[in-house]
Queue: 3 jobs
Job 1
Amino acid sequence: MLLNAKGLNYNVLNEYIRKATDDCNIVQCCGQRFIAAGMSGKSITIDGTPGNALGAYLNGATITVNANAQDAVGDTMNEGKIVVHGNIGDTAGYAMRGGKIFVKGNAGYRAGIHMKAYKEKKPVMVIGGTVGSFLGEYQAGGVIVVLGLNEKNKNIVGFFPCTGMHGGKVFIRSDCKEVKFPSQVTARPANEADKEELRVYVSEYCDLFDNEISEVLSAPFTVITPNSKTPYKQMYVAN
Amino acid sequence: MKVEGQVRIPSGCAIAAVISKDGNRISGEMITNAMKPMHDRSNGLGGGFAGYGIYPEYKDFYALHLFFDQRATRKSCEAFLKERFEIVKSEIIPTRKIPEITDEPIIWRYFVTPLTSILVHLQLDEKEFVARTVMKINTEMNGAYVFSSGKNIGTFKAVGYPEDVGVFYKLEEYEGYSWTAHGRYPTNTPGWWGGAHPFTLLDWSIVHNGEISSYDANRRFIEMFGYKCTLQTDTEVITYIMDYLIRVQGLTLSEAASVIAAPFWSTIEQKTDIEDKHKHTYLRTMFPSLLITGPFSIVLGFNGGLMALNDRLKLRSMVVGEKDDKVFIASEEAAIRTMEPNAENIWAPAGGEPVIIKVKDGAF
């Protein structure tokens, strides 16, 4: 179903999507928020610029964005997949607890903030370019992969990555010699088991965006996990 | 009704701006339309615009825009202005009656130049004199409020959604080489006309999305230098800080940005460029009270340019794009796409990283 979003309010647009019985192709999108919020069992393609909180609370639907997306993509999503063929704004995957987000380009600040896992659910976010500061802030679970492809003149991560991280895992395609991590996390080179796990995420990324997997995996990767020796506990009071 | 000053306002908000580096003139319609996709960032309690280069025929005169509560206030304010300025033109600012904008005050503009005899007598430079006069009217003259006071710049603001405010002030009839815009979302007080953004002093204008945690520390410091924060909204203090740092202290724009959005000490410590490290250490040590904490994204307008800046933690969104001679700044990419569907190089500046765009020399 072709949906022309020009001049449509977000609630009207979402109502059309909800009522559609087949896949939706949204054209001339310009800033409508909450697209596909909470939806399941649908495939939605977007031309134009979707507004903030794209796919918030997403519950199984698949969203493909052919250009850039704005802030808070996949906010609190539970299941499903969001694929962005451009860059993505701040707080991507905010508190997501399931599903996958793939971004061809760069992500803004606080990518994966407060991402978590729950029982069998394990969210995954793969960013092809670079990320801003506070990557994986307060991360409690799930996996974030930052590839830094095609960005030779820019740091792969900004300042203060993994601040407050207490669960989950971050992969960065770099030896991270220049990156300063907080003392509450451990950064180490990826071992064979890590690389096996990584291959699953990266191969899906490469299929989506036509990259050569062997080339992407040929660079060194750093794995960041919480440091169980110096956990965040008794920061305020001893009780 | 309580006005700002009696109650405090934290706000959400939307900002947008456009500038032509070649000094080409852009209609106010473009910036009005830019606010439409960001409608939900505002709540109808304030919208406003600043246009630069819109008064070319009066470019050597200060353009004072004023709100008055009643005719008698206007009369007494005009008498006061006549003692200090030569008024070359005074008129009602044209507006359009629309149902979306109500309860408008009396809105006038005056193109003025300070009387030389007064300047000589007071031994003040022109800008300082105009700034002091604005402060005097805004603090001492009940019912009168100067909301624009620069040369070849005009601010237009009201209570309402920004896209309606643009229609109300007939912005499509103005052309400028740069524009800034603001949609307001004050959350715990009624907005009023003076409290809408942009906040201006001389040719400085500020539109701001965010809330300043350090407001009182900043206010106490800046009020030592003759500025009066009459509105107790946080944005006002940024305008005065920028005027103080740049006009009075002679800092560059990027140095001023390094004062208000200073990097963390740990980040300064890690700097490998020794000169840069010393500069940041110096600025943080000299002006500790002017560090602005809390979330903000701002666009500072001035004669011949714009500067966009995020707080150092980047707690608000801001994107920049360009096309040919134009540069676009907005809270959301959708606003940039509305101004220029084919905008290129869309990018998000880092926290504390100023984006300074200047019109080429002689083109404004």
Job 2
Amino acid sequence: MSNQKKRNFQIDAFKHRVVVDPKYADKTWKILEHAIHEIYNHNASGLSFEELYRNAYNMVLHKFGEKLYNGLVATMTSHLKEISKSTEAAQGDSFLEELNRKWNDHNKALQMIRDILMYMDRTYIPSVHKTPVHELGLNLWRDTIIHSSKIQARLQNTLLELVQRERTGEVIDRGLMRNIVKMLMDLGSSVYQEDFEKPFLEVSAEFYSCESQKFIECCDCGDYLKKAEKRLNEEIERVTHYLDSKSEVKITNVVEKEMIANHMLRLVHMENSGLVNMLLDDKFEDMGRMYNLFRRVPDGLSTIREVMTSHLRETGKQLVTDPERLKDPVEFVQCLLDEKDKYDSIISNAFNNDKAFQNALNSSFEYFINLNARSPEFISLFVDDKLRKGLKGVSEEDVEIILDKVMMLFRYLQEKDVFEKYYKQHLAKRLLSGKTVSDDAERSLIVKLKTECGYQFTSKLEGMFTDMKTSHDTMQGFYASHLELGDGPTLVVQVLTTGSWPTQPGVTCNLPAEMSVLCEKFRSYYLGTHTGRRLSWQTNMGTADIKATFGKGQKHELNVSTYQMCVLMLFNNDDRLGYKEIEQATEIPTADLKRCLQSMACVKGKNVLRKEPMSKDIGEEDTFFVNDKFTSKFYKVKIGTVVAQKESEPEKQETRQRVEEDRKPQIEAAIVRIMKSRRVLDHNNIIAEVTKQLQSRFLANPTEIKKRIESLIERDFLERDSVDRKLYRYLA
Amino acid sequence: MRKEDSVKLISAEGFEFVIHKEAAMVSQIISNMLTSPGSFAETEHREVTFPEISTTILEKICQYFYWSLQYANGKETEFPIEPELTLELIMAANYLDT
């Protein structure tokens, strides 16, 4: 109130219009009842809202609320009963339409009735806790019509039949379906669930159980999955068109269970079309479908993963143990890379780049690559091949790609130190023979190895590069100070730091006189500039370019190894030489000499020598002479030694032994490091920690670790605990 | 004021108030009368007779409708009510659900 001023005023006593007429309530109700009838009969236009509202208002005001309410219930019920009857009478398909129309009518009428009885809704109903008009109307509709004995079952059957018909491809009136379903929802979610959803799910389960049985008998895996996917999408579409959105999860669960989960194993292992065949044939689409469908059910993806893993392990195992494959290391590694590429693309195209799948892929590769003890050697050979010739004319980015792939395989290796051994050997050969295609590629790979395994791993490899560089400078210095040497043969020396390079026992051969003089000059020059060093010649690793003139004057430049050079120089003085003579003159080790003679006398196109008797192999009694008839299309002729690319069995054993030998100090160092920080530790823990520390280089053998511990105890680095024999103590 | 935007409210004494439909809609009941899905007489003719509301009160009510619209726009003023009218006004408000 705005007016707060003190002012005397009078309020007239409120004059209730006294109800004189005892039949007032009945009369008023008659008016309202009539109005309700008229509303139901679509005849409301003559009615005055205000009058009806006023009547209802007055009835409530005069404490006739209960009469009004009961009257409403009775009138509405009787109307609904009539509707019920007329709906029941509807024939066949018109049943739903009739029901829908009546429902719309009822809704409209209900709203009008609620409007005119609003005062009752507002005051009377809350005070006596009765059901509000709108809700009352819905409840009466539910009880009188939907749950009437004749309609309830019919409605349910009709709806389910329509769904069934749509599933078999017929077109149904979706709008009508939506309206009816919406009606059920309006009546309360429990009505929808009990009267439709539950039976719908049951019928669907039965339907899909039958259908999936039928499909699985006659379809292959790919087709089956297509069908299942289609059904699933249909159901989702159905929900969006005319069902409650909450039903989506339920119905898709039914389809997933009946069509996928129940047949999962059978599908995956289906003969000729299961997952294994898809993997073999790169069926990305089918696999993608399988992934998406199986993802929906519990254990679906793990099932796919298991099958993929076991298949991958099986084929990988075959690949790495296939003796045919082992003949060509480059081919072998290429196969591994191809296999990896194949699965990478499967996972990215079909399996959504799933991390779990990638892990499965990695662990499978790790498993089978290490099944073959020669994998490290082969990978290094592959790199060697690529860096010698494979990368010629390939763009920088492609080189990076290839190197990255190699690194990926390298990561799978457990015996990384074995790889290092081989890599060092191969790198040394490449560097010394100047066969490297690209220095950048070499360095890039070293950097990759360094990031992968740390400084320690590559320090020696880097040392090799440094040696090459300093040697180059040294040679320049040498020739600058010996200008008189310009005319004679040219000597190029690479000074290799002992330890960085895989050196072989220093067997030297007798160099031709021209060369030994030069070598001596270099020695004195080098030792003059670097005091306190020792130079020893590794004649087995060098190469030479020599000019030769053959019988009819044909001139060629021959690119040969140092050994070959020594042999050829002998023929400057003699025409014929026996094997024994050559051996005596050069002092080249037997195996190397044989190999070198073989490459010069027995290889077609490179046979600068001839021998008697003619045969494939070199015998101790053979005689050699210059092949006067030697011809070649090229001026420069490269005579390769018959090198065993792959290591022979004894060489392999030797390398293996060297690797084992190298591991010993590493294991010992690891043990000491661990014990230094822990002071006291039991046996099992030491083994575990050592294995962990060395994992990045190799897989340490527990018995070897044990031996190392014993050796350390002998040398007083550790002692056993006097009480608990399993405990070791660190002795500072 | 266009015809279709207005409504006519008639008091007990037969006095006619033509006001904006928007203002009349402040009353829940008048709003229902004008928008009911069934076609009641009021909906069709856009006029409502109140045989139990006197002209004075109905006038006050119309004033209130407009004041309320303003108020709804965020303009806060006081709505003056003469004490003599208070009771009847309360009754009418109850009736009109305003």
Job 3
Amino acid sequence: MKRFFHHTLLSFVLLLLLSSSTSCSNHSETSKGKIAVVISTLNNPWFVVLGEAAVQRAEELGYEAVLFDSQNNPSKEQEHFDNLLSSGYKAVLFNPTDADGSAVNAKAAARAGVGVFCMDREINEPGACVTQILSDNYSGCIQLGQYFVEVMNGRGNYVEILGIVGDNNTWARSRGFHSVVDCYEDLHMLAQQTADFDQNKAMEVMESMMQANPNIDAVFCGNDAMAMGAYQAVLGAGKENHIKVFGFDGAEDCVNAIREGKVEATGMQFPKTMAITAAELADRWLKGERDLPKKLPVAVELVNGMNVSHYGHFGRLD
Amino acid sequence: MNKVIKYVIFAALFLMALWFSFYTEPLSVRKEREALKQYKPEQLVEHYWMTGLSDLEANALEVGNFITALQNDSQALRENSGRVLGIGSNVCYVLKGEADDISFADNEFHFTLHGIEFTIPAKYIFGNTARDACGWFNIDDFQNTMDFNAVSACMNQRIKDLVIGDKVQHAAEYTKCRFCGSIEVKPDAKSVEELTLYPYILELQ
């Protein structure tokens, strides 16, 4: 009986070891390698969606994906790159903090044979990235500018709140908007200040701009977080029925604010499309495909009170 | 003698070192040289406009053929003649034709051809249709998207200043037009009723 018990126990232990080793070998076979998803900041819901969608698609494609938050800090971003380049990552799905500053990191990765795929934000060193998947901010803001002119009836005073000055998206949006609005002589820009794409900063900036310019009719903000901050300031000043707020991104709270008539319009970007495309291109690149586009713009759609029912959380509902 | 040669060589090297250490040039020369290095979208647009316009017109779709192809097989039309910048973007085409009922109102020329109402904006020309339809420019060739977008601004300005030009002042006198221009349609469009045309060529009579 004792012998039988020993045999059974031994068989059980062997079975356990065998099953554990099989499970380990299965794991190593199913994972194609590691992909890093480096995001400029996870303090903004838009970038959270971008990062999580990239991780999810990379995992679906069989990779081990890890999300890094650069906290809008280029030195933090560099630390992440130092770390991931020494940890065997094969590709980086990258949302840079700065168009010029982040180029160093992308170049270091390229030198190490790691493929870099930029998402949403551009770097001014196209050779360092395999592909840059970017929102067509300029065209999106042309549409927004045309709607702005229509809502303002071609006249009035407005202010502009810019995003991060070192980010190309900030200027692509501003230039697209101004390429339209500046054609109308009766539309006057009273002030233009940066709030770094940050909601709280935008609220403070808008408050000070309203104090300096009591006759503001509208505010154009470089993203939805700033539009919501500007709206809070407008609400605080009791001018919500007079000052028209325009954003850009397609964030859920801003789309809801359009639905409620608090915000006039936004430009819907598609972060999930960008993230999924980046992960799929990285997969193709890792499989040996080299004939990939260097830049891939993603169309932006105007969302206003007339079509808001078709849009939801960072995308179309249909 | 050898000493003299040695001194001459040393003196020459010293003078060369001195020259390169304290070399100066007029500010205007320096600025001119720096300017040459800068990206000039106007020159780029001018180059393609001068060299590519006749081919563009020769390869443009007749309006009637465009409508038939759009209705019959929009996918084939898109693949053979359309240009799409990126994901989800509208499809751009270059069309040509002649119309004989042209009118002018609200800073726009209007005419109807094969049942489509065409509008040619004369005062405000925005967007990337003219740049994207012609196929002269590849986004991958540009340092960044700002440079690429600057091409659109230049093309739109050129259309406004040179293609439309002073035709607006005599708009009421014209009844006929011959055109070659860019349009864009939604990716899933199978028919169109109205189109905005950004002309590369516009001849009015």
